[in-house]
Amino acid sequence: MSGPTGAAPLLQMTLRVEHDIFVVRQRGREVAAAAGLEHQDQVRVATALSEVARDLLRTVGGADVTFIIVHDPAGGGRHLRVDLAPVRPLPDGHYEPQSGAVARLVDMLGVVTEEGDTVVRMSRRVPATAAALTPERLAELHTELGRNAPGSAIDELAAQNAQLIAALDEVRSQRDELAVLNEELAETNRGVMALYNQLTEELEETNRGVVALYAELDEKSAQLRAASESKSRFLANVSHELRAPVTAIMGLGRLLGDSASDPLTAEQARQVGLIRSSASDLLTLVNELLDLAKAESGRLEPTWAEVDLRPLFGQLRGTLRALPTRPDVELVVEEPPAPATLRSDEVLLAQVLRNLLHNGLKFTERGEVRLRAERRGDRWLLAVSDTGPGIPPEQHDRIFEEFYQVPGATRVGGTGLGLPYARRLATLLGGTLELSSEPGRGSTFTVSLPTGGA
Predict the structure, then answer these.
(1) Is 367:387 a contact under the CB 8 Å cutoff?
(2) For the Histidine kinase domain, which residue ranges apply (predicted)?
(3) Domain span holding position 73
């Protein structure tokens, strides 16, 4: 199927089993986001799609689902259209959603006949402010959506459940020979199904809330904030409790290696060194977790003051040059142009730049790591560039995720928390942290800050 303009489908998938409802909902939200719909409209489309998918799965056994971007030659503008072709004929050729409020979530919901097939069709207008979708961009989105398989916990759980069910069918055919294995598999399957049913109930409850009253999203947002606060408190508490024993381990290691203590054998000295090195790495992780927890919890508040970038850059130049680096890597800190002042928190701003510079020094094997400042209108652009291996475009967003490091990169010390923490601090200071990079051409991290503070 294609739209009036003959556009190729962005994504096609099948709806045959209950798990597909989760996937259809998730992919619907992904396609809506790729098409440029705002967040609330993404939720509306996903909710309406999952409700219609549930109806069709129950009444006619499923459907073939197609996502298309179409241009309306009559009314102008673009629409995200979703066609659900039932696998069996609809009763009386008519479809009425179980919840009448579903139709209010989209611009159009109805049954059409196209090329002799009965299709349940829904559509939502794409905002005029969304980026233009050229044929090249549509082809790119089609490739990305087809390549990116669902990666949520529900998908992994469903895949495991499907494997267990297939194994259970095979075990049933060999019940006499494999009775013990069948019992173990059945027990495991019951546990998986119980968790799967719990997730299903939660999704249905969320859908009913969205369909009945969209304002309930505010309550869900509050619950998400509470969950985030709980996670931050957990990280803060665990980090705080771990800091004391880790510090004690480092202290004991220093005492063991002290010249005033009983001399150690070469092997003992090496093992004590490994203990101290591991404890130091763990203390770094604990400190980064604690910093990240403070930033997430909102307890980290900037102390606003006039900050002169010249002494700040001089301090960074002096402290980072004292760190051990590769001999083929040069640290260059350019003098910022005068007047080099802005309203910010000097300590937090220094942490952001220090994290970026330290990250560049870790991953650059030869060449330079450079810090420079540029004034553009009412904003300062602070850029940290390096001549490292570069980062593929598909990894640009993921490197700002906690504990993530680019696959295939040179393995060096680190926890994957520095960049997420730096971006949170930049946001806290009223600015942004953006990345420009490609493989073989190095990377540039740019912090954009208002001159007058947030």
Answers:
(1) yes
(2) 237-453
(3) 11-147
